[in-house]
Amino acid sequence: MPFPAHTRVTVHGPADDVRRLARSAAAVDEAMVPTDQFHEWFTDRGRRNRYQVRRAPIDRLHGWRTDPATGNLEHLSGRFFSVQGLEVSTAHRETREWAQPIIVQPEVGILGILVKEFGGVLHCLMQAKTEPGNVNALQLSPTVQATRSNYTRVHRGNAIPYLEYFDGEDAARVMVHTLQSEQGASFLHKRNRNMVVEATGDVPVRDGFCWLTLGQLNALLAKDNLVHMDARSVMSVIPVAAPPAAASAPDDFRGALARSLADQPRHHTGLLSWFTGVKSRRALDRRLVPLDSIGGWRREADRISHESGKYFSVIGVDVEASDREVPSWSQPLLAPARRGVLGLLTRRVDGVLEVLVQARTEAGTLDVVELAPSVQCVPENYEGVGGRLAPGLLGQIPSGPDPRIRFDAIHSEEGGRFYHAENRYVIAEIGGDFPEELPDGHAWATVRELNELVRHGHYLNVEARCLLACLHSLL
């Protein structure tokens, strides 16, 4: 589908960025590409891409080796990532000690959205990108989504499009730049730069890219498995302002959300002080061990899996893709056994929305704890291990249609490292049966407090950030 030509515009200073971003969030009719045309274009991209993912033995992946001494899976270049064993001990999880495979990827990647003003409205340059682990192959990704090994072209493939806007080589103005974590349950200390950069000159639109407003992206978040995890992460760190009409609305959910963004002083909960106290009291001990030595896990020709059949498996895939920097490659992926639930519980206090977060410790968390959603679990993982271990607030998440639900969608996690990993993202108001006493490590927060913390790294985990982006979309 052809896209409109682009013109030069005046670059604004940082003082009015929030206002301009808010206008983009409110814009749908002013979009360069109408949403129905976007869906036609996106569907056509899926038809035109040649993409095939085949399961492969983990010990015979092209370009990878199994270390004969440790059983670790490593790339022959020594770059990209490896899969190793990790032993963990902490007093702050349902199980105090365990061992598991973990992805070790010390490189810092780039997740970046390029923005440009058209007709007085900021638009985001988004990419229709295939990933080997995506349930539907093609999803809507940021302008740039690349590891350091990829953008330094260790694979000897094509250059990353638009990278020059994010590494300082081209004329652009940085609007947002923060270092954020990825899934602590699966990565050891993994971090990415989350960036929003405004172009100051003409931007040619390459095949597979299109301009969308923030309002369009917010609407697309309600669609299952469409907006990629990396795009959701970057969207969560974009400054948000409530529309004036919403802030003055009656005491409905949207009005309460808008007032929570304003965070009037009488509703301030002191989240940072509480979180700092929790972090100072928690401990997390872990050490890398040979992958072949971790107890409770078995290695077969096509996978490494837990003997219970729960949690996840390490599998191998061979990939062919017509729209990637290299046309074919092989790699390991983590394949969850079941779909998870990520739930954000909310309440209204004097007309101001508050959200319930928890201080969560994961195996690979860099700084012991991060703020997580109210509920973050795979329910089937707790079957047969005693009800006392199951997350106490899981029952507060409505399982079906319910008037308390404000957001409900199935989203995939990062398809470059996870195979068919899905979570149900739910935002709901609490019911009358909600316990008066919160579980240990949980606290109520305003949306403004979360927005202040997400500007900095290692406060909100990626699951909380993605739900925060979904919450923002409800404005």
From TrEMBL:
Pfam families: Hexose_dehydrat. GO terms for molecular function: lyase activity. Residues 36-237, 271-471 form the dTDP-4-dehydro-6-deoxy-alpha-D-glucopyranose 2,3-dehydratase domain. This is NDP-hexose 2,3-dehydratase. It comes from Actinomadura harenae. The lineage of its organism: Bacteria, Bacillati, Actinomycetota, Actinomycetes, Streptosporangiales.
